[in-house]
Every structure is written in structure tokens, then in C-alpha cells.
Design brief:
Layout lengths: L4 H7 L11 E2 L5 E2 L29 E3 L1 H9 L8 E4 L1 H9 L8 E3 L2 H7 L9 E4 L8 H5 L5 E6 L4 H13 L4 E5 L8 H7 L8 E4 L2 H11 L2 E5 L7 H4 L5 E6 L7 H5 L3 E3 L12 H16 L2
Parallel strand pairs: 4-5, 7-8, 7-11, 8-9, 10-11, 10-12
Antiparallel strand pairs: 1-2, 3-6, 4-6
Helix pairs in contact: 6-7, 6-11
């Protein structure tokens, strides 16, 4: 007798089964393999999907409760954007009239997750909107009074967002950034700022050195933070209108920008630790500058 089951099946008049074709049980049901007429899936069987094309640029979104509420309350946003919310957040917005006339699109949290970058903590709210463009330099610099923060090539959204938050808390007039070397005022930056990007003016300039020249003409004094300086921040600051210039954590303030500062100063660290995170350093500098302004 042949050991080949296919040959034995042929002798017995049976058709061999190949691949993944289904077999028929004695009761007429089909078992195993491919089913040419599968049962239709119900909605409950399917995982909700975000609309096609929803995975867009994260800079087109603001997410999180505080950032979204601040954006909705910003008069510059009136009539703009696409407001997305889970059912409970939508009820809150309508109850407290926090949507400021924006139509709310209700969706489940999983679908909202899929529209945003991985790990985005949206708290049930997202606002798809064009990033803010910024204001002219003179809008925050004229007249010369108080404190302005200038950021030289800071690109980390978390750090920039945290600096916006501190600057707003300490009453700064605004923030100046270089247009081509700074992140958009949206996405993770807006989340880290907890809504400060919607309330604090930001000037995006082409050249920081020329911006410092203009500020000097208007009566501002520029103090750059430099850990290698011999002068302390406490000694360098006074009651005059002040621009605090912060450089990136790796390279610090660039040479030409530093040359346009009136003085370079350091935050003394008696604990001996090498340096502070730039957003922490900005908060310390803002506090000291605020104290000097009050005298």
C-alpha cells in the first residue's frame, strides 16, 4: 500500500485537500481554513479608526485642557480651527461656555489618541489650528519698560514651552525668537507652556543681533546668561528695561549675539553642580530680574 496519502485518496475516489480550503463536517458546517462567506463584522467587533489623513503635522494641533482652553479664549483664534473633544469634555465646554463659538466634534479617546503624536496627553481635548505667527518686535518693545526674554537657537519644545510659562508668571512683556531656529507655538511646546503661548506675545525675527540693535535704540539693556562669565546675575541686573538673552544648553549664546549684549552674567551655583536646565535658569533669571525691577 502506498504511503503517499494523496495517491491513496485518488484510489479511494477522494479529492485531496490543499492549502487553506475549508473542510465540511458531517453536520454540513464548515470548519477550519478559509471561509468564502465570513460573517460580517459588527461595529463592536471593530477598533475605532481615525479619519484618513488624520496623522498630520503635530504642529497643527494644540492638545491638553489648559492649552486648548487658552487657545479657545484667544481672540486671534475666533472662527478658526477644528475642536475635538471626548463626550465628557464636550459636555464641560458647552456647560461652561468655554468653546467660544467653536463647533465641537465629539469622538472617543482612542480615536483622539490616533490623531495626535504618540504619548500626547490630550486629557480629552485637541484643537487643530494653524500655529500663531507672532507679533512685530516693536509691539512688545515700545515703550521700553519691564523685561523681555530672547531665546537664541533653543529648539527643544519642552524647554521653550516651560520658558513661556515662567515668563508669563513673572510678568515679562514677551519673548523674542529667531524665526528659522525655533519650534512652532503648538504641539508639545504649547502643552508644556500650559496655555502661556496664547497669552504672551512672541516676536519671530530674522536676525537676533539686529533685533538687539533695535532694542538698544528703544532703550533696552541686554543681559546674556553665560556660565563662564565672572560677573553674577545679581550684580549685572538693575531697574532698567532688560532683555534676558538665553542660549541653547549645548552651545550657549552665539558669538555675534553675545557681542550685542551689554553684559554677560552667570547664575552662581555654590552647590558645585555644573549647570541648570535652560528653562530652570530662565525661571531663576526672571525672578532676580523682577526683584531688581521692583526697586
Amino acid at each position: 500500500m502506498s504511503r503517499n496519502p494523496e495517491r491513496n485518496d485518488r484510489k479511494a475516489g477522494k479529492k485531496p485537500v490543499f492549502g487553506n480550503k475549508a473542510q465540511t463536517a458531517p453536520d454540513g458546517s464548515r470548519k477550519g481554513g478559509w471561509n468564502p462567506n465570513p460573517p460580517a463584522k459588527t461595529f463592536a467587533d471593530s477598533t475605532p479608526r481615525a479619519p484618513r489623513g488624520a496623522k498630520s503635522d503635530p504642529d497643527a494641533f494644540v492638545w491638553g485642557r489648559h492649552p486648548v482652553l487658552a487657545a479657545l479664549a484667544n481672540p486671534a483664534r475666533k472662527g478658526m480651527g477644528r475642536l475635538l473633544a471626548t463626550e465628557d469634555r464636550a459636555a464641560e465646554l458647552e456647560r461652561d461656555k468655554l468653546n467660544h463659538g467653536h463647533k465641537i466634534e465629539v469622538m472617543d479617546a482612542l480615536s483622539l489618541d490616533r490623531m495626535l503624536p504618540a504619548g500626547a496627553v490630550h486629557q480629552g481635548l485637541a484643537f487643530k489650528v494653524t500655529p500663531l505667527e507672532g507679533v512685530p518686535l516693536d509691539d512688545i518693545a515700545d515703550p521700553a519698560e519691564g523685561i523681555i526674554v530672547m531665546l537664541d537657537q533653543l529648539t527643544d519644545p519642552q524647554n521653550v514651552g516651560a520658558i513661556f510659562r515662567s515668563a508669563l508668571a513673572f510678568g515679562a512683556r514677551g519673548i523674542i525668537v529667531q524665526d528659522r531656529h525655533s519650534p512652532a507655538l503648538a504641539g508639545a511646546l504649547a502643552k508644556a507652556s500650559v496655555g502661556a503661548t496664547e497669552k504672551l506675545p512672541c516676536a519671530r525675527v530674522t536676525n537676533l543681533s539686529r533685533a538687539l540693535e533695535r532694542l538698544a535704540d528703544l532703550g533696552w539693556r541686554a543681559v546674556g546668561l553665560d556660565g563662564e562669565s565672572e560677573e553674577t546675575l545679581e550684580a549685572a541686573l538693575d531697574s532698567r528695561p532688560t532683555v534676558l538673552v538665553m542660549g541653547s544648553e549645548g552651545d550657549g549664546i552665539r558669538r555675534l549675539v553675545a557681542e550685542h549684549c551689554d553684559v554677560l552674567a552667570k547664575i552662581p551655583m555654590p552647590g558645585g553642580f555644573e549647570s541648570l536646565n535652560v528653562s530652570n535658569a530662565a525661571a531663576v533669571a526672571l525672578y532676580v530680574a523682577t526683584q531688581k525691577q521692583a526697586k
